[in-house]
Amino acid sequence: MVTLFIAAMAGCLCLMAELVHLKRIQKLSAMAFGPEGRARKWTQFVPLIRSVAVVAICWGLLILMNYQGDNQGENLLEQEIPKDKVEHVLIILDVSPSMYLKDAGLEGDIQRKVRAREVLESMMERIRKPYVKYSVVATFTDALPVIIDTSDNSVISNILDLPMDQAFTPGKTDLLKGIQKAFEIAKSWKANSCTCLLISDGDFTSEIGMPDAPPAIKEFLVAGVGSSQGLFIDGHQSRQDTLSLKRLAKRLRGNYQDVNQKHLSSQVLGDLAGESEQEAQSFTLREWALLSCFLGSFVLAFLPYCLVRFSIDHHAQRNKLRDLKVLGLEQK
């Protein structure tokens, strides 16, 4: 409301200045507009048009200056976040050597770990719910927590570039240890406040000893990367084991999705996306402010050209001047 009031005041000042300017140019109207001393009728609205453009620019700039998006990152102080509103996204990331194989993506020419990063970044961009905190657990032969409860998406993106497999003793992949470590972290969180995402190629050893999910886990997602044909590594053909990943998701009452060529769907993300498809297509306040600044600036920039070019009928004025000259010569 204050923003709109300030913009309206700026428009009123501009309109007052335009009216003062209009009175001054009336003395020179004959020189500016020819013998009739007036421009075309549409120019009467120029003061109002220019004032509205100033209001649009002022409002847009004030909105952009004070705008804060849904994801405010580390600008949200810890004590300001209501504990009952915090949502957790717990990522269990397979960092085994098979994730370096290049058989992922639309063309099948990028590493599985690179594809995993693309999927995670796409997911974070679409999560609109406020007060979301991310945690990452890396798993290979064992499981290690990498980061717990960060609100900064850039931190997660930078972590995904690290060679985390170097932190583990070489051996066979054990995803169950990653799930167990993630569930241990989630035990202290509020019930139904955590979405757990496991992203892997499914190339792991045992399915025995599945831990029970704590009350904090409201949804468990399994995302598979890697092609169905696979590539040779460590004495065997490594491919996306869709059957194992589907069984894993079913045992944890979760959902599985193949993300080797497609991203996680918004339906799978559920309420974390925070908005429906119709709402996603609508303009945000920031986009309206940008459009307002553009239109206001365009009008102010283009208006002088229109005044010079179309404010008077140059052809008619030349004819009248010619007639006046002829009349003056006849009188002489």
Describe the protein's architecture and organization.
The chain is an alpha/beta fold and 332 residues long. It folds into 2 domains: 2-68 and 284-331; 75-275, von Willebrand factor, type A domain (Rossmann fold), CATH 3.40.50. Helices cover 44% and strands 16% of the residues. It contains 11 helices and 10 strands. The chain has helices spanning 2-25, 29-33, 46-66, 112-126, 153-159, 175-186, 242-251, 266-269, 277-281, 285-310, 314-331, and strands at 87-94, 102-104, 110-111, 132-139, 143-150, 194-200, 217-224, 231-233, 236-238, 255-258. A 6-stranded mixed sheet has the order 5-4-1-6-7-10, sandwiched between helices. Strands 2-3 form a two-stranded antiparallel sheet. Helix 3 packs antiparallel against helix 10. It is elongated and about 95 Å long. Residues 70-79 have low confidence and may be disordered.
Q: Which class of secondary structure composition applies to the elements? A: alpha/beta
Mean pLDDT: 81
As for the CATH topology of the largest domain, it is Rossmann fold
Q: Determine the fraction of residues in helical runs and give it as a percent range.
A: 40-55%
Oligomer: single chain
- Which strand order do you get reading across the main beta sheet? 5-4-1-6-7-10
User: Span from first to last CA?
Assistant: 68 Å
> CATH superfamily name of the largest domain?
von Willebrand factor, type A domain
How large is the count of helical segments?
11
For the record, the CATH class of the largest domain is Alpha Beta
Strands, total number:
10
Strand % is: 15-25%
Question: Major sheet: size, sense and barrel closure?
Answer: 6 strands, mixed
Report the radius of gyration as a whole number of Å: 33 Å
* Spans where pLDDT lies below 50 across 5 or more residues: 70-79
Number of domains: 2
Shape: elongated
